[in-house]
Design a protein that fits this description.
- The protein folds into two domains: 3-264, Aldolase class I (TIM Barrel), CATH 3.20.20; 319-431, Arc Repressor Mutant, subunit A.
- The protein has helices at 42-60, 80-93, 113-122, 136-141, 148-161, 178-191, 208-214, 223-239, 258-264, 295-305, 317-328, 337-344, 350-358, 382-385, 412-416, 418-427; strands spanning 13-19, 21-22, 34-35, 64-72, 95-106, 126-132, 164-171, 195-200, 243-246, 249-251, 268-272, 277-282, 285-291, 309-314, 335-336, 346-347, 362-365, 407-410, 430-431.
- The longest helix has 19 residues, at 42-60.
- It has 433 residues and is α/β, with parallel strands linked by helices.
- The two termini are 34 Å apart.
- It contains 16 helices and 19 strands.
């Protein structure tokens, strides 16, 4: 078998390791990241990671690991020896597929050829780099401490070190015009290999950007301008063969991030480290876990009780349905309604599905796959139809002459207003027979 055999029905099992430290906190970031100018006790944290892994394995039992992801924070600040020890312990506790995807996030400013070589020797086979922009002036506005030259140097090292690599960019930045984004994205796609992540800037609560935005000192593109930038993103990535397999992620077929697919397909994963979230199944009960966010407090808890969890909550069937719907509609491959019914005991009403299909917000399929998405100007009358998404939908018997669909997915138009699409479908849930 290969990881390509992982599907919507069987997403596999993954392990997420959260490294919480950064060299500097970016003003737009609401991730669990912390700056320690005096450094950190890496030996202590390694011991805590290993012990929390041990406790997690005791709680959930045997698994076969299809993917491992080191996120943060800035995991490329970890010593390669720390990464190696964590991977070794995962291999001792669970069976790791020989073709497992093992990813580490890296910031260009912390990349060195020797360090990357150490990660590769430890077992990392994929790296994801946070470029965020290919314009030095915008990197400064984003609070990044690397330059465009640093990013390109890191990319050159990654190409010669890892089997697979990707990088992130942020668009819809303050003052960004469609022409400027088109030029920057073309440059980025010339640098990309088989995967790139392109995120629209969002103003997250309790960040410096949120305070500046509230004070009128930070102006981001309005919804219509952001929509134009989104359309450019879809146009250029698709033309370059990097298809949008998820709202913000683009890849050549077969090169999708397998760990992220596991999340969006509503698979099972263990979250290890400060602030890490997990979704694990014990005795047929899916459970949400949340770890203490503060790094040193998390380490104290692990030393005292074997883990740093502060929440361990069973997820009800209806909550599972909502989570699967929200995650799965991010994907171009869509959602299997039979699996949704099996997990959550519900289905969206045929009326709501027909209503959203009429608006051009979703596609439906009556077999195992969808027809290919057709190119075209899906923005025609876009802003006129978006508000209709939040409406009551059609009567329950609408479209009763057609067979019920087996799959649904959001269209590019629907993915841009995904929360409204999810809300309408969720409100229409009826018990599955």
């Amino acid at each position: 078998m290969s990881v390509d055999d992982l599907t919507r029905a069987d997403p596999g099992f993954g392990v997420y390791i959260h490294w919480p430290f950064c060299a500097q906190k970016c003003p737009y970031c609401d991730f669990n990241s912390h700056v320690r100018f005096a450094g950190w006790d890496e030996d202590r944290f390694l011991a805590a990671y290993l012990r929390e892994l041990d406790t997690t394995a005791q709680r959930i039992g045997k698994r076969t690991v299809a993917s491992i992801f080191f996120g943060g924070g800035t995991p490329s600040l970890m010593k390669p020896e720390t990464v190696a020890a964590i991977l070794d312990r995962i291999g001792e506790l669970w069976s790791v597929r020989p073709d497992a995807e093992i990813t580490l996030e890296a910031n260009p400013g912390s990349v060195e050829a020797q360090r990357f070589a150490g990660y590769r020797a430890a077992g990392i086979n994929r790296v994801s780099m946070g470029f965020q922009s290919l314009r030095d002036e915008d990197l400064k506005r984003l609070g990044r401490i690397h330059s465009v030259a640093d990013a390109k140097a890191a990319l050159a090292i990654a190409r010669t070190t890892f089997e697979r690599y990707s990088f992130d960019l942020i668009y819809a930045r303050p003052g960004q015009t469609p022409d400027a984004w088109r030029s920057e994205l073309k440059e980025a796609l010339d640098l990309a290999d088989s995967h790139v992540s392109l995120y629209q800037l969002t103003i997250e609560p309790d960040t410096p950007y949120a305070a500046l935005h509230a004070a009128g000192k930070l102006i981001v593109p309005d919804p219509d301008a952001a929509l134009a930038l989104y359309e450019i993103t879809q146009e250029l990535t698709s033309a370059g063969g990097l298809l949008p397999y998820e709202i913000s992620n683009h890849a050549r077929p077969g090169e999708e991030s397998r760990h992220n697919l596991l999340y969006w397909r509503y698979g099972e994963y263990a979250g290890i480290g400060p602030g890490a979230h997990g979704r694990t199944i014990v005795e047929s009960q899916r459970t949400a876990t949340v770890a203490e966010r503060h790094p040193e407090t998390w380490a104290d808890l692990v030393e005292a009780q074997g883990h740093g969890l502060i929440e361990e909550t069973p997820i009800s069937a209806s909550e599972q349905a909502d989570e699967m719907l929200l995650m799965g509609l991010r994907l171009r491959e869509g959602i299997d309604l039979d699996r949704l019914a099996k997990l959550g005991g519900v289905r969206p009403s045929e009326g709501a599905i027909a209503h959203l299909k009429e608006l051009g917000m979703i596609d439906v399929a009556h077999g195992a796959t969808f027809e290919p998405e057709l190119p075209g100007n899906w923005r025609n009358n876009e802003l006129d139809s978006i508000p209709m998404c939040a409406g009551p939908g059609l009567p329950p018997d609408a479209g009763h002459n057609a067979p019920p669909p087996s799959l649904i997915r959001a269209t590019p138009k629907g993915r841009f207003v995904l929360n409204a699409v999810v809300s309408e479908l969720s409100k229409s849930f009826t018990a599955s027979v």
